[in-house]
Specification:
This protein has 206 residues and is α+β, with helices and mostly antiparallel strands. It has two domains: 107 residues, Trigger factor ribosome-binding domain (Alpha-Beta Plaits); 75 residues, no CATH class. The strands form two sheets. Strands 1-2-4-3 form a four-stranded antiparallel β-sheet. Strands 5-6 form a two-stranded antiparallel sheet.
Length: 206
């Protein structure tokens, strides 16, 4: 089919699609007949529902599906024939004043820009040297060790040391009296757990 592509602005394009009403009606009728063989409705045996009843119940949704399918197929074919590289989904709207026996739709969409690579035969590329000394390797290894370290329980009564992770039981008081929400116990499943290290801003408890 002949495809006319209208340029709206920059990468935005528009294609007008025309669909014969007869082909849409024929497809709708075919789908309704297939649906009538399996649909279940009160007062009717499966496969014995009159086509008119099925059309009354499901006609609109079936027609909507058929039009969507037909418009999608027409757009894909038109874009291929025009050799367009479509970016994303088109915005499709039905046009008024279509010729008798046809339905027309506008498909507005964007295309990928054309990228043209220039002559690279005379291009010069500067190779930047990169040196890795022993100090850089040691720093990287130290970071990896800290990221992958694990913790083990210390013996009962042992004091905390630099780098330890500490779980704190805390009870806040105002003028010597506990206040609501100021208590955190590590042994409680609903409490908050305070963790710290000597290198952090939180004080560690020994």
């Amino acid at each position: 089919m002949a495809v006319t592509v209208e340029t709206l602005e920059k990468l935005e394009r528009k294609i007008t699609l025309s669909l014969p009403v007869d082909s849409i009606k024929s497809e709708v009728d075919g789908r309704l007949k297939r649906l009538a063989r399996t649909v279940k409705m009160d007062s009717f045996r499966p496969g014995k529902v009159p086509l008119g009843v099925v059309a009354q119940r499901y006609g609109y949704s079936v027609q909507y599906e058929v039009i969507n399918d037909k418009v999608g197929e027409a757009f894909s074919q038109a874009a291929n024939e025009a050799k367009l590289r479509v970016a994303g989904q088109p915005r499709i709207s039905e046009k008024e004043g279509a010729p008798e026996g046809e339905m027309t739709f506008d498909a507005v969409f964007e295309i990928f820009p054309e990228v043209k690579i220039g002559d690279l035969t005379t291009a010069q590329v500067e190779k930047l040297p990169a040196e890795v000394d022993d100090a850089a390797i040691d720093r990287t290894l130290d970071i990896l060790r800290k990221q992958r370290r694990t913790f083990a329980q210390r013996a009962q009564g042992s004091p905390a040391e630099d780098g330890d992770r500490v779980t704190v039981d805390f009870e806040g008081k105002i003028d010597g009296e506990p206040f609501a929400g100021g208590k955190a116990e590590a042994s409680s499943s609903s409490s908050a757990k305070a963790r710290c290290s000597r290198n952090s801003k939180m004080p560690c408890v020994e």
